[in-house]
Design brief:
With 468 residues, the chain is α/β, with parallel strands linked by helices. The chain has 15 helices and 14 strands. The protein has two domains: 350 residues, SGNH hydrolase (Rossmann fold); 63 residues, no CATH class. Helix 10 runs parallel beside helix 13. The longest helix has 24 residues. GO terms for molecular function: hydrolase activity, acting on ester bonds.
Length: 468
C-alpha cells in the first residue's frame, strides 16, 4: 500500500522519431546485483507481503505479490534465487479464503463478500460466490476463526501472514509495564498459530500454538530480505473506527516501547544481527486509503437530504463528552459504513446514529497519524542500526493518494475500484498496485546497493475486475 512515474517516455519517443535514422542504438543498462546478494531472498511481513487482495488470500493474487515480482526481477540479474517458494493453495482450492467480487446488484455495481451457503442461520449466504475456497470446516481453537487448508510444501520464502502485527509476532514484545496485559499479550503471540488461520496453515501441527512468528522466520537463512511490518499495529485499530475489541489483545494501537522491542527482534532475526542485506519498509498513512475516502460525510448527508429535506446531516456516535453529534468533513467514514447505513438507516437521526466503529473521527485521525509517525521513526532507526535500506512507503503512498500515479501513459489513482491500484477491500493493492510497490522496492534497492535490477511493467498486471 514505487512511484516510477514515467513522465518522460512520450517526449523521448517523439524525439526518437526524428533521430531514428542517424543515431546508434542505446543499450539498456546491464542488470546487476551491485553489493546485494539475491541468491536466497526471503520476504517478512503481513497481508501486504503475502499478496492479499480483494479481502482475501488466493493464488492469482499471491502470484502477483511484490515479493514474487521482486524474485522474478532479481533472477534477471543472473544471480537471483533459483526458486522462490510461495505458500499457494492447492489447485482444487485455488481461491483460498475467498475474495470480494464486484457484481451488479439491483442495477448497481456492488462489492459482494463471499459467504457460506444459505442455511437457517445464514439465509442470505451466497455459497462463496462459486469460488474454490480452502476452508476445512473446522474452527481454530484459539479464536474460533475458520481453519484453512494446511500448506504442505517446503517452508516458503514469502513469509507474509495476513493480520499479523509486530505485537502479535513476538512473544517477548509486550512491554506496557502492566503485568496482566503483558502476560496476556505475550501468551497470545506465542499461541498465534491457533489464533490466525493464515499463520496456522504455514506451521507443522507440532508448532501450532507454541511457535511465535519471530522464531518461525529465524528458521530461514536469507542472503537478502524485505521486511514490511507494523501496518497492523495501527491499521486494525483504525479500520474498526478506533474501537478496541476486548477479546483481541492486538486490536489497539501498539505502544511505542512494545513496538520497538518487537520490531528490533524481527529485523535482527531475519538480518542475522545486521549481517544480511535487505530493505525495511515503513507504515503508510492509513487514513489516505480508499477504505476511509470512498463513503464520505458529504455524500451520505446529501442522500439523507434527498430523502428528507429537513435532514441536518449525518449523526455519529463518538467517544468523549458529546457521544452523539453531527459529522464534519474531518470525520472519516469506513467503507463498510455504506452497507450498514443502507440496511439500518443509521446516521439519519440522533436516536439512530452511525456507530463509532464505522467512524474515525477527527481526534482519532490525529491519534492514528501521530502513532504512525512514532512507529516509523523506530523503523527508520532500526534500518540504520542494521545497515539496511529504508523504503519510505509513507511518503510514497501519500503521493499516490494526493496525485495519482502514471504507468506508461496510463493514469492510476487511489479512487476505489476504478483507480486500478487498490483492490475491492479498499486497503490492499490490486496486482497492478503490487507491481507499482515492487518497483518502488527496486528503486530503493538499486540506489542503496548500487544494483541495476530491472523494473516490471505495471500495465501488464490487472486492476480491479469489473463484471463483463
Amino acid at each position: 500500500m514505487n512511484l516510477l512515474i514515467n513522465r518522460t517516455t512520450p517526449a523521448l519517443a517523439l524525439l526518437g522519431l526524428g533521430l531514428a535514422g542517424c543515431q546508434p542504438d542505446i543499450d539498456a543498462p546491464t542488470a546487476s546485483t551491485g553489493s546485494a546478494n539475491f541468491s536466497s531472498y526471503v520476504a517478512v511481513g503481513n497481508s501486504l507481503t503475502s499478496g492479499y487482495s480483494d479481502g482475501g488470500l488466493y493464488n492469482e493474487a499471491q502470484s502477483a505479490s511484490y515479493p514474487a515480482l521482486l524474485a522474478q526481477q532479481f533472477a534477471k540479474t543472473g544471480k537471483g534465487p533459483a526458486n522462490f517458494v510461495q505458500p499457494s493453495f492447492s489447485a482444487a482450492k485455488k481461491d483460498g479464503s475467498g475474495y470480494i467480487k464486484l457484481l451488479l446488484v439491483n442495477g448497481a455495481l456492488t462489492p459482494v463478500q463471499p459467504t457460506p451457503p444459505p442455511s437457517t442461520t445464514n439465509p442470505n449466504g451466497n455459497s462463496y460466490l462459486g469460488e474454490a475456497v480452502a476452508f476445512t470446516g473446522n474452527k481454530l481453537a484459539g479464536s474460533g476463526q475458520d481453519e484453512l487448508e494446511a500448506y504442505s510444501g517446503n517452508q516458503p520464502d514469502n513469509l507474509g501472514v495476513p493480520g499479523i502485527s509486530v505485537l502479535s509476532a513476538d512473544k517477548t514484545a509486550s512491554s506496557t509495564g502492566v503485568a496482566a496485559i503483558d502476560a496476556a499479550t505475550r501468551g497470545a503471540a506465542a499461541a498465534y498459530g491457533i489464533i490466525n488461520p493464515f499463520y496456522q496453515r504455514l506451521l507443522p501441527a507440532a508448532d501450532r500454538g507454541t511457535k511465535d512468528y519471530v522464531t518461525y522466520i529465524g528458521q530461514k537463512s536469507a542472503t537478502f530480505f524485505t521486511c514490511w511490518m507494523g501496518n497492523n499495529d495501527v491499521l486494525t485499530y483504525a479500520t474498526n473506527g478506533a474501537v478496541v475489541d476486548a477479546a483481541n489483545p492486538f486490536s489497539g494501537l501498539t505502544d511505542t516501547t512494545s513496538f520497538g522491542k518487537g520490531y528490533r527482534n524481527i529485523v535482527a532475526t531475519i538480518s542475522k544481527n545486521g549481517t544480511v542485506g535487505g530493505v525495511c519498509a515503513n507504515i503508510p498513512n492509513v487514513t489516505g486509503i480508499p477504505y476511509f475516502n470512498t463513503v464520505t460525510v458529504a455524500a451520505v448527508a446529501a442522500a439523507f437530504k434527498a430523502q428528507n429535506a429537513a435532514s441536518p446531516g449525518v449523526f455519529i456516535s463518538v467517544a468523549g463528552t458529546t457521544p452523539v453529534r453531527l459529522a464534519t468533513s474531518a470525520d472519516l467514514l469506513t467503507l463498510t459504513a455504506q452497507a450498514y447505513i443502507a440496511a439500518t438507516g443509521a446516521g439519519s437521526t440522533p436516536t439512530n446514529p452511525l456507530p463509532s466503529k464505522y467512524v474515525l473521527d477527527a481526534a482519532e485521525v490525529t491519534t492514528v497519524i501521530n502513532r504512525t509517525n512514532q512507529l516509523n521513526a523506530i523503523i527508520a532507526k532500526t534500518a540504520r542500526q542494521n545497515k539496511v535500506a529504508l523504503a519510505d512507503m509513507n511518503t510514497f503512498f501519500n503521493t499516490i493518494s494526493q496525485s495519482g500515479f502514471v504507468t506508461s501513459t496510463v493514469n492510476n489513482s487511489a479512487t476505489f475500484a476504478s483507480g486500478n491500484l487498490f483492490s475491492l477491500d479498499g486497503v490492499h493493492p490490486t496486482p497492478r498496485g503490487y507491481a507499482v510497490v515492487a518497483n518502488e522496492f527496486i528503486r530503493v534497492i538499486n540506489d542503496f546497493y548500487r544494483a541495476s535490477v530491472p523494473t516490471v511493467n505495471p500495465n501488464n498486471y490487472r486492476g480491479a475486475v469489473f463484471p463483463q
